[in-house]
Amino acid sequence: MITIIAGTNRPDANSRKVAHSLLRFYENAGKQAQILDLADLPQEIFLPESYGEKPAGFQPFADSVLASSGLHVVTPEYNGGFPGILKYFIDMLPFPESFEDRPVAFTGVAAGMFGALRPVEQLQQIFAYRNAHIYPSRVFIMKVNDVLNDAGELDDAEIAGRLKEQSEGFAAFVAQLNKK
Hints:
Domain NADPH-dependent FMN reductase-like: 2-142
Mean pLDDT: 94
Low-confidence stretches: none
Shape: globular
Pfam families: FMN_red (PF03358)
GO molecular function, one term: FMN binding
Number of helices: 5
Largest sheet: 6 strands, parallel
Order of helices and strands: EHEHEHEHEEH
Number of domains: 1
Protein name: NADPH-dependent oxidoreductase
Helix content: 25-40%
Number of strands: 6
Distance between the termini: 17 Å
InterPro entries: Flavoprotein-like_sf, FMN_Rdtase-like_dom, NAD(P)H-dep_reductase
């Protein structure tokens, strides 16, 4: 199962819309995939005592990551970086097993010209530090508001093609690594 992480808890986030597009690409290719949406994190995870003992409501999120054959992170760009909620989520996951030897792909989403290049590179450093297998083909979606239609679906054939190619390639990468 490939777990797509919608990397923000912002309401009506474009990264969530892109995550749903990726889910369709995986499903259309016959791959099992699911979305893990950070907007659904339990509120008690934000209490200071969560650093010591994770609340029971967080366990399904940790289980989704631990049970995944690969993670596909969709991150927006906020002020030149990735959202704090995504970093906090990473920090709350079990160490080291959450990312150790786990395949990870990245898609960046931004309203600006760079398509979340900086946040993806920052995340690659974190996941590499945690010994994940980084899939080298990244997709950066710049001016995301121009490529989503009113229904929140991709309305740009080139970007849809790049996401389709990325999801198919990542699924093959995951399958190859999980054979070992």
